Amino acid sequence: MLLSSIFEGNQNHYSDLEPQRAPIGIFDSGVGGLTVLRQLYRQLPNESIIYFGDTARLPYGIRSQAEILQYVREILTWMQQQQVKMVIMACNTSSALALETVREEFNLPILGVILPGARAAVQQGKRIGVIATPATAKSNAYRQAILEIDPDVQVWQVGCPEFVPLIEQNRIQDPYTTDVARSYLEPLIQQQIDTLVYGCTHYPHLEPVLRSLLPSSVKLVDPAVHVVAACTQELDLLGLKNTHPPQPTRFAVSGCPQQFAQSSLPWLGCTPMVEVVRFTDAAISHIQKD
């Protein structure tokens, strides 16, 4: 049986269950949010999860704030229809440009990755580099968050427009990717950073490449680890932590399900069954399951 068929024709699958057993929603532009999903598996193994990748509209990092806000509103509306108890915005661009606005518009807990990542970075070092999408870098969200926590640290940000497409195309081992990474890291290495923050949830997939180029003394900060720790605290606070066995993870995308399934295989260790969700001006529709 297809994983996604468990949910077919029943968007309120969880509606009759106690709130603790409702799923956590995660979304990203593509496979980047799988770094957050892996942390959820490790830190909260009893939680049921719905993962959405907005693959038809990636990369988010080149989009305007108005576009990102529209996308996030559509995704959160769909997530509410799936009866999620919480949403993790596993996308730094969305966290930077839309989080505060949608928190006021939607009546459910929504966590972003930037503040947990900034807190972890400040605990690691005083000369902090941030690699991010162009939109996240332009927003200065990480710089502002880090300096609010500790005004004495120094922060340098680099926009990395080519990283997300290369990761989505599974070109991590491509020599070209190493060349691109070297060009992005060079100004940060020149500043003698002691800490590097993955300012995009896609970027931990590049860790072997980045580690080969960075001085061994540079500490790497993966906000995925820390946003899930924040999620754990939030669930405890709200009394929503699940103690029952979880449902199988549900995967959905707005683009090609086969491409997402193939790209996610190295990170999941299996080929997921993926459904397609289309967003239109009139409605949100499930038009295909694969």
UniProtKB/TrEMBL annotation:
Residues binding substrate, per UniProt: D28, S29, Y60, G61, N92, T93, T201, H202
Keywords recorded for this protein, A-Z: Cell shape, Cell wall biogenesis/degradation, Isomerase, Peptidoglycan synthesis
Pathway where it operates: Cell wall biogenesis; peptidoglycan biosynthesis
Keyword Iron among UniProt keywords: no
PROSITE patterns: ASP_GLU_RACEMASE_1, ASP_GLU_RACEMASE_2
InterPro entries referenced in this protein's UniProt entry, alphabetically: Asp/Glu/hydantoin_racemase (IPR015942), Asp/Glu_race (IPR001920), Asp/Glu_racemase_AS_1 (IPR018187), Asp/Glu_racemase_AS_2 (IPR033134), Glu_race (IPR004391)
Family per record: Belongs to the aspartate/glutamate racemases family.
NCBIfam families according to UniProt: glut_race
Function, in words: Provides the (R)-glutamate required for cell wall biosynthesis.
HAMAP family: Glu_racemase
The protein, known as: Glutamate racemase
